[in-house]
Design brief:
- By secondary structure, the chain is mostly helical.
- It contains 17 helices and six strands.
- The strands form two sheets. It has a four-stranded mixed sheet. Strands 5-6 form a two-stranded antiparallel sheet.
- The longest helix is centred in the middle third of the chain and has 38 residues.
- The chain is elongated and about 95 Å long.
- The chain starts with a helix and ends with a helix.
- About 4% of the residues have low confidence.
Length: 436
Amino acid sequence: MNNIFLITKREFLTQVKKKSFIILTLLAPILLIGFGSLIGLMFKANESHNIIEVVDKNGLFKNHLKSTDKLDYVFVSAADEQAKMNTLKNNESLDGILILPELQNGNYDQLLQNTRLVINNKIGFDTKQKIVSDINEVIKKEKIKKLGIAEVQLDNLDKGFTLKTINVSENNKEDSDLTFGVKSVLSMLLMYVTFMFIIIYGVRVMRSVLEEKNNRVVEIIISSVKPFELMMGKILGVTMVALTQFVVWITMSVIGALVLNTGFSSIPKNIPGGNEQMMGKFDILQMGTQISHSLLELNFPLIIFVFIVFFLLGYIFYSSIYAAIGSAVDNETETQQFTLFAILPLMVGMYGSFTFMNNPDGPLGFWLSIIPFTSPVAMIARIPYGVPAWQIALSIVLLLGTTIFMIFLAGKIYRVGILMYGNKATLKEIWKWIKG
């Protein structure tokens, strides 16, 4: 046991003392936010502003096709149609001409079929769909008017409402759309981080084992420690490295949420009334405050507990597999035929977790969060929505038992494989090592 502690300490200190680890740990959240902002800016930079001239041969659509910040409708006379068409190709300030034919005998279907959009350059799919939607909306209103329904009545028919949801399982707490959105984002973020870290740090263990094996350093090491102690020391050392990063990131996230919640929530109260322009500048801050408030309303102690427990057990479980793979092969090329067994269950758990937004308590969510091969990512994805205590306890017991069993199997493979050179390991050969 003392040897495991010493190897764990060595692996941990070797990693955390690196400048790259310190920089990545402190800057990763900032880089993540910056990356998300960059993606948003890229989408914003790629947005286009289209100008479409409209030839309305009925006068039906004038004053009803409303321009937006991305799409301008400019109505022109039907008499100018041909002249506009002739100059469209060389007109760089115009993107297209929308020709709305005459309405004959009240046949709106025929009008839609004969409607054309002539363009001089490619336009985005969303722009085209926006034009179709606007035309359909005008025709829909015209059809309803012919039925004798006034526009006020029509607006009343289309009026929506927000359904308030009260969850009796959470002390009658109101579950708003924003809260549900925050839970969904948090669920996917935690799940994806767990998935990526298990793979990244699991592969790190595998490469470390493979490197020591190829350098024959392991022959010297195991003269002083048992192979099992060496394997467990490596796994636990890298586990502590990952856990250290998570503790730092969780602390930074909670502090950030508290700052947003307390620092910016009072800003709108200090703005003079009626200054709508000034209020508009704080929309993003208000949204950040609401999101942070929704985050702090969640059961964070339970979420953090489940996240850490399932990450640790899941990481040890899969790192045992990676360590066994690293000991059984002689080069990284040969690892590809075995790593698939570790990656596939995690991918099933990850992609299955995307369905939790529709039904987190459904049968798929239950079984994925109970089965040990998928529970490290699936349970973490479910926990922001709320999971019964007995399901969490059952999942932990099953994952713990399976992890211990996997460590036992990996230890038997590691003990033989770490000293095997030149022989290509096969599943049949590995099975003999396990039985031996």
